[in-house]
Amino acid sequence: MNIRPRHTLPAASLLLAFGAAGCTDATDNAVGTVQYLAKDGSTNQIEDPSRGPCHPLSGGGATELANNTTGDFWLYFTPDCRGDGGNERTYLGSMLTNNPASANQPWKSFSVVGW
């Protein structure tokens, strides 16, 4: 009687499940960094921004923003992630950089898309 095949399938299934779990992001964060050049000339960085809340950008807002995270963002010209009636928001995908048309209207906040 060969017992080995009966134990091989459950063991392989368990190994596959643990392997898949190790590849997923179980955090509530967009993993990575957000780097931006502020209107006041300072360079700022945010690590692993959490999903859900609005993230205001210090230094008068961002004139250039690099999204080096696993999440996509909405960029806003207002500090509270709400539209101002005009250009309400701009989409910025993961691993991309965005420069506003004018330094007179920097990005003031961002939120993680889809959370």
UniProtKB/TrEMBL annotation:
Q: Which residues form the signal peptide?
A: 1-26
Please name the PROSITE patterns in this protein's record.
Answer: PROKAR_LIPOPROTEIN
Which of UniProt's keywords are assigned here?
Signal
Q: Which domain of life is it from?
A: Bacteria
Disordered: region residues: 43-62
Provide the protein name: Uncharacterized protein
Provenance organism: Streptomyces palmae
